Amino acid sequence: MTVSEEVRVRERPRQPTSADVAALAGVSRTTVSFVINGRADVQIPPKTRRRVEDAARELDYHPHGPARQLAAGASLTIGLVMRQSAEQVAADMNLPNYLWGLAAAARAGGYRVLVEPLAPEDGTYAGLLRSRRADGLIVSGPRDDDDELAALVRDGFPIVIQGWRADLDVPSVDVDNRAGARGAVEHLLELGHRRIGCITNAPLQYTAAAERLSGYRDALTTAGIDFDPGLVVEGAFDAASGHVGMAGLLRNGGPSAVFVASDVVAIGAIRGLRDAGLRIPADVSIAAFDDIPIAAHVDPPLTTVHLPAGALGEAAGQLLVDRIAGRPVPARTLLPTELIVRDSTAVPRKSGGR
Amino acid sequence: MTVSEEVRVRERPRQPTSADVAALAGVSRTTVSFVINGRADVQIPPKTRRRVEDAARELDYHPHGPARQLAAGASLTIGLVMRQSAEQVAADMNLPNYLWGLAAAARAGGYRVLVEPLAPEDGTYAGLLRSRRADGLIVSGPRDDDDELAALVRDGFPIVIQGWRADLDVPSVDVDNRAGARGAVEHLLELGHRRIGCITNAPLQYTAAAERLSGYRDALTTAGIDFDPGLVVEGAFDAASGHVGMAGLLRNGGPSAVFVASDVVAIGAIRGLRDAGLRIPADVSIAAFDDIPIAAHVDPPLTTVHLPAGALGEAAGQLLVDRIAGRPVPARTLLPTELIVRDSTAVPRKSGGR
DNA sequence: GGTCGAGACTAACTCGCGTTAGTAACGCGC
DNA sequence: GCGCGTTACTAACGCGAGTTAGTCTCGACC
Q1: For B96, what's the count of Cα atoms within 13 Å in the CB-facing half-sphere?
Q2: A170, B116: Cβ pair inside 8 Å?
Q3: Which pLDDT belongs to residue B352?
């Protein structure tokens, strides 16, 4: 597993401080600080400014972060707390995109991102804020009984929730899960399907799962179709749960179309259909949710609700930065989704369904 | 997109400091520091210790991170620098797992993880280290001409490379790409394939891509098969590149099996095959690389080289923590891979190939 | 030529914690 | 009663920046 050759430690030269820069430029530390931070309210003659800048460049001076954070009373860091199990995080194929957007927004606001993946049984994250390692937190996937979160919110810490918690007075960001799901099911209805199943993306304690299911029910209600609990199965993040979920649906008399509230779960569901010798979309249509990067390339390319993961991360970051700055912020931000029709949906085999 | 109701700012109470704890416990700040940090070399009578601990608990005291970092001269933070484009990161479906492993190892060593996604044209990351915001860095996907990296290594900063850079004296972590690829191709050979194509996971400037291609060539050479450049196509991280790549291969007279050096690219390649009316594995076998979480559930379930993403992140984190602590560390750590045989590979249609 | 004021800069304090050097109190033996 | 160690603590400095309250210089104006 390893090669024997080793890399040993080298002594690092001491990093230059603002005092070094001041000495080299022949000014005081205060002046250096004024120049480095470009303070508009202090007048520094161009000649002096140049001297300081040259000295800083020559020494390759970088202000000491922790010292600056201590003096300024701000860590310029935002924390991303992922309150999910390892398996759940692993199945989140939109996370890379989300993280990218979040980091971009943070950087634009002068912040960096600290990630704190913390399985539900894994301990607490309040310390991040209370110890001032982070100025604010984005909490993704908190449970309803997360008292820690409630306490932090009560104490007025800047927090943005990724998802939703109805009971807390805290800004949240999410896509419009309900409207998105509704759109997907409406698409199935328009194709002529009447008997439409649903596999959720997660257990219904997860608000996103409950919302998507609500969207499904909305669409059925509007179309005048009675809700049949026998057509609803709970998925659990990963493809395997879609596989067994679909098997369950097929046992209850197969629907002509299924709304699967997650692409990953849908991929498992499709496998379940094929196990039963059914073709997609000829025999059963599948509409999904998330539009993960490979959704357009699996077989068949998925008709799915596009989730703008990058934009979501960006919005969350932007919101948190605003909140930290003390700017008022909308209580709930819902990003729109868009149905992408590909090849996993079609008109039912026998027009009118069965 | 948003609801009008807004969340306003609340005044936060001042966080308690060690002086507050000292006052409440009736001791000096120094004693508090000794108790909090559990210094073994100082004797504190149990009674005093209890008083301090009770006071800390009562005030919900958390030491101020930046102050601590300043005094200790360590930020207790490691940075994960992702030197890839947004698209490339988005297509990395093992990233969530990797991140989880990395964070776990970091936490075990008392560190936290700061992520810095930085597209190649996006600026520098040296400041992270020079400003002491991070004590060490894991650099993933650096380019060969990354002078910044060379400078940091020269200055003796603790750095671990995710991947490989032959020219730098810096510890690196990776899976054994070459052996893994070789194993996959050997599996195809054992099935009886002789005309085996290859679609790389990325352009060959990326060392992982070059290594996997080497593994492919190794296997052919050992089997006594001449290398045919016409059977090799470059992929580029995403499924779309696999799609067009396969189309190219088919134009050059189709192989009976293809080693696609990435699951995501393979999913596109499979689509390319089906566009041409070919079945997998009946007409063409596909062996891939990465074993992303859905690899077992796509159609057909992929025969692929398992990449232990979580373990990889964990190893990288562990190595960096050791390096920061000044412990000697192996120059190159290669994690083993394992071929997972599923349903995308089979014996060639006409025994002996064509 | 003295005074006033603006301009250019700096001494000294602050942030919260770790740590070193040192002191006060106590017990104990002679 | 004195000396000598322990034991149990604390005063004070340092980390590297930001910031406040001044000081000093120089020119213009009366």
Answers
A1: 22
A2: no
A3: 41
The answer to whether residues B95 and B134 belong to one domain is yes
Read off the CATH number of the domain in which B232 is found: 3.40.50.2300
> Which residues on neighbouring strands pair with residue A285, listed in sequence order?
A257
Q: How many angstroms separate the CA of B30 from the C1' of D5?
A: 23
pLDDT at A158: 96
* Structural domain contains residue A286: yes
CB contact A120 to B (< 8 Å): no
Across the interface, whether the CB atoms of B65 and A89 are under 8 A apart is answered no
Q: Are residues A205 and A300 in the same domain?
A: yes
Q: Tell if A18 CB is < 7 Å from nucleic strand D.
A: yes
Specify the pLDDT at position B111.
97
| A198, A170: one domain | no
Strands of the sheet containing A232-233, edge to edge, are: A232-233, A196-199, A257-260, A285-290, A303-306, A338-340
- CA B349 from chain centre, in angstroms, equals 38
Count how many domains chain A has.
Answer: 2
Check: CB of residue B196 under 8 Å from CB of residue B260.
Answer: no
A202 near A189, Cβ under 8 Å?
no
Does pLDDT of A352 surpass 50?
A: no
Q: List bases in chain C with any atom under 7 Å of a protein Cβ.
A: 7-12, 14-21
Parent domain of A279:
177-307
Q: 3-state class of B74 per DSSP?
A: coil
Q: Which amino acid is at A117?
A: P
Tell me: the pLDDT tens digits for B119-138? 988 889 999 999 999 999 99
Instruction: Decide if B132 and A103 are in contact by the 8 Å CB cutoff.
Output: no
Angle made by CA atoms A297, A300, A304, in degrees to the nearest 5? 75
Cα–Cα dist B255/B87, whole Å = 29
Q: How confident is the model at residue B86 (pLDDT cuts 50, 70, 90)?
A: very high
Q: Which stretch of DSSP H or E encloses residue B218?
A: helix B207-222
Say if residues A299 and A121 touch (Cβ distance below 8 Å). Answer: no
Contacts of B10 in chain A (CB under 8 A): 156
Touching check for A313 and chain B: CB below 8 Å? no
* Long-range Cβ contact pairs of B14-22 (< 8 A, separation 24 or more): B15/A130, B15/A132, B15/B62, B15/B64, B16/B59, B16/B60, B16/B61, B17/B61, B17/B64, B18/B61, B18/B63, B20/B59, B20/B61, B21/B52, B21/B55, B21/B56, B21/B59, B21/B61, B22/B55
